[in-house]
Amino acid sequence: MKRVFFIILIMALILSMSCGICAAEPWDGTVAESYAKGDGTVANPYVIETPAQLALLSQKVNLTKAKGGSNYANCYFELANNIDFGCSVNEDGAVNGSVFTPIGTTDSLSFAGNFDGKGHTISGLVIQSAKADTAIDFFGYTGASGKEARILNLTLKDSTLLLFAKSSIPPLLRMAATQAEINSAAEALQ
Fold this sequence. Notes:
The chain is α/β, with parallel strands linked by helices. It has 3 helices and 9 strands.
């Protein structure tokens, strides 16, 4: 009797732990206050581990310098692990989770740093542009004002791009299950 109870208890414990790992909640739009570690130098890059830390990068790039923003010229970033935002868009166009703002939304608010995905994948991302002149991609605008950006060793998959714009482009353009892969600096700079 004790043995059966012990086996059931162990199985319940294993099941509860595995369900917690598999049932990730969609990203709720939270923005981190800091990166996991690092100071942005080549020897000690900013390390990103969570969706909220990627949102911090987006927020900082998309703010003017007067408001505390930065294009991160000559700064270095790396992903510590795969990041799953857990977000999606249903058939009616409703977003399950939060929408991510591209990193760099205009030529004057662009990313000019170095981002090394370290071979990791970002998935379950919903990216939206609200204006016709706003870039729509994970990295929207890069390398403006004569600054060079490098983005390498990164895969973006199982993500959705939403475009809401007043232009000749249809009001809602869905590109479901998009996948982009950048394997080298040479590809990133082309």
